[in-house]
Amino acid sequence: MSRVLIAGESWVTQSTHIKGVDSFTTSSYVVGVEPLRRALEGRGHQVTHLPAHLAPAQFPGDAAALAEYDVVVLSDIGANSLQLAPEVFERARRGADRLEALRGWVGEGGGLLMIGGYLSFTGFEAKAAFRNTVLHEVLPVELLPEDDRVELPAGARAEVADAAHPALGGVDGAWPHLLGYNRVRPRAGAEVLATLNADPLVAVGAYGSGRSAVFTSDCSPHWAPEPFCEEWDGYAEVFGGLVEWLAG
């Protein structure tokens, strides 16, 4: 059993309804982590979910806090939400450099997985911005300086390069279609285990005494439609394999 922290995979949606000359606004809170949580818990892992709106105040800030986990997963949450704690952003006080702490933790033996989304890697309008942080060097891929999203509305299937690698969990056969991903470049020395549209989809590598991995598409809609994240047995094998490989 591994102890897994998943940060991100939640959002608040606000809608404006206009009815003639009148209008009103409604808000909703959406959690996208459930397919991933179920897959990992079904393989015996202990999962803690830190929603995106709580991450600025609660993301682990030092090695002692990170030591509570074996693997940290960042999914659809930008660098600002991890770097800018309330005391820094709202009160202009010095605080912990949490991405530096995360880099050091991986270098000492931790496992880091980044999953794609509009606020992963470089992201929508480059707002995820991990390329500008110390965490970039930990990843097994090089990030682009511009908006890196690739939308595939007709869908595309993964091409597996190394089905025997343990990080893929023994998944077999064709993968269901995916509807998009973040474009990245392979880093020298890393292993690209699967591609999408000829770009890295799953890549793994070592960083110091630790390990890092990426899955550049999503773990939930819209890039991961239901046939991928709800109906395919291979979903749990892939993400379970990644977490188990990262945990060593």
UniProtKB/TrEMBL annotation:
Annotated ranges, domain Putative glutamine amidotransferase: 3-247
Transmembrane segments: none
InterPro entries given in the database record: Class_I_gatase-like (IPR029062), GATase1-like (IPR010768)
CDD domains: A4_beta-galactosidase_middle_domain (cd03143)
Keywords tagged on the record: Glutamine amidotransferase
Record's protein name: Glutamine amidotransferase
Species per Swiss-Prot/TrEMBL record: Actinomadura yumaensis
